[in-house]
Design goal:
There is one protein chain. This protein is of the alpha/beta class. The strands form two sheets. The protein has a seven-stranded mixed beta sheet. A three-stranded antiparallel beta sheet has the order 3-5-4. The chain is 41% helix and 19% strand. It has ten helices and ten strands. It folds into two domains: 14-55, no CATH class; 66-264, Rossmann fold (3-Layer(aba) Sandwich), CATH 3.40.50. The chain binds S-adenosylmethionine (SAM). Residues 56-60, 64, 98-100, 104, 131-133, 136, 185-187, 208-210, 239 line the site of S-adenosylmethionine.
Length: 267
């Protein structure tokens, strides 16, 4: 029903996860079982959005898995920029795939901004951030966060890039302007990159804590998209508990054994 009406394909999601999440809605709507809930869904058009809400898991944080961000900041950013300077190119392209409320692409924007300012380098940065959850994208574009989202941020960065009002922290417009948010379904059969990015060609792709929700066949489709979207000599960042599926093991080389960061192996 979700697929037919909203074109969201959860058929490749882990079954136990689906069961747990649907169960939540069965309880919340005071239904007894899945059959009753199905009927309820049919009779209450607003419920489908509540169901999609619980099926798309949005948990995120600024600088989640801080070690990955430290590595990106101290090794990958200088390398990518050096490559660009060598090739006489002046723009760098980044994709946060499954960006949720925006903490991930904004964290990346902050560390790039810090580096470029410190080294006095002028480079055009294009940061694309996509998700299938339109509510999350709206939230991301507003850039307003609670104290849980920001708890991994170093104080100096928090002070520099956020303004606090009561219990909320709003990201500066300088960082907001660096990120372009749009809808993109990683299971889309017709496009391998967000249309806004035109041709992909990314130097750095982050797809973290999204793959864990899909079975290997669907993961393979997603890896295929990510691989095609990436430039030669580019990097892929996965979540802590994610690894490339079998068919892509040789196409991505892990850069070290402490983070889940991979370098694309040539075509
Ligand atoms: C747990 S969050 C991860 C957020 C962030 N990447 C992080 O690691 O903190 C997973 C996100 O993936 C999104 N998602 C799930 N299925 C998707 C799909 N088919 N295409 C694009 N995004 C998807 C969800 O809406 C959710 O916002």
């Amino acid at each position: 029903m979700v697929k037919e009406q909203r074109n969201f394909d959860f058929t490749g999601s882990q079954e136990s996860m689906l069961e747990r999440r649907i169960q939540k809605r069965i309880h919340a709507t005071n239904n007894k079982n899945i059959d009753d809930y199905f009927e309820y869904l049919n009779n209450n058009s607003a419920e489908i959005d509540n169901l999609i809400d619980v099926l798309t898991i949005n948990v995120s944080r600024f600088f989640r898995n801080s070690l990955s961000f430290e590595y990106i900041s101290s090794v990958i950013i200088p390398k990518l920029i050096f490559q660009k300077v060598q090739a006489n190119e002046n723009s760098l392209r980044i994709w946060s795939a499954g960006c949720s409320y925006g903490e991930e692409p904004y964290s990346i924007a902050i560390i790039f901004n810090e580096f470029l300012n410190k080294e006095k380098i002028s480079l055009k940065l294009n940061i694309f951030a996509t998700d299938i959850d339109k509510k999350a994208l709206k939230h991301a574009a507003a850039g307003k966060y609670d104290s849980v989202s920001i708890k991994n941020i170093k104080y100096a960065l928090l002070d520099k890039y956020f303004t606090q009002k009561e219990d909320y922290f709003t990201i500066s417009s300088e960082i907001k302007r660096m990120v372009q948010f749009s809808f993109f379904d990683l299971l889309d059969k017709n496009h391998h990159v967000p249309q806004e990015s035109i041709f992909g060609d990314f130097d750095l792709v982050l797809c973290r804590n999204v793959l864990i929700y899909f079975n290997p066949e669907y993961q393979k489709n997603i890896f295929n998209k990510l691989y095609k979207s990436m430039n030669k000599d580019s990097y892929l960042v996965l979540g802590e508990s994610e690894v490339p599926v079998e068919a892509f093991k040789k196409k991505f080389k892990r850069v070290n054994n402490i983070t889940k960061i991979y370098r694309k192996v040539g075509e």
